[in-house]
């Protein structure tokens, strides 16, 4: 089983560039979330989705957009990259009846 | 604001000893409290959870204790092994009874010395 797949694993962007971080899961999970992880801090929730067509903002949504057109995919878009968005990004999915979230391997993003 | 926090950022133990990782929380409305383990370069991995109406739950070599009076959560690892070296996060669900919103604390780095 592939589980949760994130692409790319590494990315360097210039300030002002846009890009999309991809997240796909093959477990038919309804819930999906994006987190960012910065040194010395826990995972902070960016956006989440409770099903296809339904998304909402988390703790730190500014500068990011999401959409959920299918159950499997939950891409995260950076509209105009800023150095403050340098971080490791994790995507997670889980079914509604569980607290066991399955995480991808992460995308390490550097904005210069 | 409401948060899930950690008492100690680092913990160093000898192989074979028991480890205790602590976590304080402030949101009394959470239904579940969860522990995750993150190894270097990987995503977090679920360890164990405990429902808010329980005081204790045991898994394989791990025990989670919940003290609602003082809003404190702990993870006990028995006979700690080098493979247990990782960052441990406590988390809570804040979906108003549903599990769609998991909020994580800052994490504790556990180092196991051989």
Model description:
The complex is a heterodimer of chains A (112) and B (114). Chain A contains no helices and eleven strands. Chain A has strands at residues 4-7, 10-13, 19-25, 31-37, 43-51, 54-57, 64-66, 76-78, 87-94, 102-103, 107-111. In chain A, strand 5 (43-51) and strand 6 form a beta hairpin. In chain A, 37% of the residues are buried. Chain B has strands at 4-6, 10-14, 19-25, 32-38, 45-51, 56-58, 62-67, 72-77, 86-95, 98-104, 108-113. In chain B, the strands form two sheets. In chain B, strands 2, 4, 5, 9, 10 and 11 form a six-stranded mixed β-sheet that branches. Chain B has a five-stranded antiparallel β-sheet with strand order 1-3-8-7-6, with no helix packed on it. Chain B is mainly β and 114 residues long. Helix content of chain B is 0%, strand content 59%. Chain A binds chain B through residues 4, 31, 33, 35, 40-45, 48, 50, 58-59, 90, 92, 94, 96-106, and chain B through 4, 9, 32, 34, 36, 41-46, 49, 89, 93, 98-107.
Topology of helices and strands:
The complex is a heterodimer of chains A (112) and B (114).
Chain A: E1 4-7, E2 10-13, E3 19-25, E4 31-37, E5 43-51, E6 54-57, E7 64-66, E8 76-78, E9 87-94, E10 102-103, E11 107-111
Parallel strand pairs in A: 2-11
Antiparallel strand pairs in A: 1-3, 3-8, 4-5, 4-9, 5-6, 7-8, 9-10, 9-11
Chain B: E1 4-6, E2 10-14, E3 19-25, E4 32-38, E5 45-51, E6 56-58, E7 62-67, E8 72-77, E9 86-95, E10 98-104, E11 108-113
Parallel strand pairs in B: 2-11
Antiparallel strand pairs in B: 1-3, 3-8, 4-5, 4-9, 6-7, 7-8, 9-10, 9-11
**Terminal residue distance of chain B:** 40 Å
Radius of gyration of chain A: 13 Å
Number of strands of chain B: 11
Low-pLDDT windows of residues of chain B: none
Beta-strand proportion of chain B: over 45%
Write the H/E string of chain B, N to C: EEEEEEEEEEE
Question: Gist?
Answer:
Chain A has 112 residues and is an all-beta fold. In chain A, 0% of the residues lie in helices and 50% in strands.
